[in-house]
Amino acid sequence: MLETLVHLRAAQIMDYFTLLSIEVPNDQVQKANMEEIPDNWADEEAPPELAAYGDAWCFTKASIALQVPSALSPVENNYLLNPEHPAFFELTQKSKAIPFQFDSRLKPDRK
What are phi and psi for residue 50, nearest 5 degrees? Predict the structure, then answer.
């Protein structure tokens, strides 16, 4: 949620987000190789090499998910899903929507 909030440009869309629960088999989760990622990967303006790393992972179709560290919280990870992977659509069709609404205290225009 932090990653979403930090990149959100239009607060009015905060009421339209949905959480999805997607189960990915452990053997289909690859960890990002931090030695291949630029040192400034967590900068506010992400370096182009970071997108190139993600694109390369995506096109190899080596895994359905890529575990990457959160740029905002050093104790959390994010998981990127690979739409190029052959099992992607089968996996996402089994997803479950979770009722969700951002807490009003997170909205910049709260009253």
Answer: -70, -45
Whole-number Å distance between alpha carbons of 52 and 27? 24
Q: 4, 17 in Cβ contact below 8 A? A: yes
Distance between CA atoms of residues 88 and 18, nearest Å: 19
CB atoms within 10 A of CB 5: 14
The encoded tokens of residue 14 equal 């905060």
62 pLDDT above the threshold of 80? yes
What count of Cα atoms within 13 Å lies in the side-chain half-sphere of residue 30? 17
Is the pLDDT at 3 greater than 90? The verdict is no
Residue 102 — left, alpha, or beta (φ > 0 → left; ψ -120 to 50 → alpha)? Answer: beta
Stated pTM of the model: 0.84
* Residue 35, pLDDT score: 95
Tell me the pairing of strands 96-98 and 19-21.
antiparallel
Which residue shows structure tokens 């990457």? 68
More confident call, 35 vs 44: 35
Bridging pattern class, strands 65-69 and 29-31: parallel
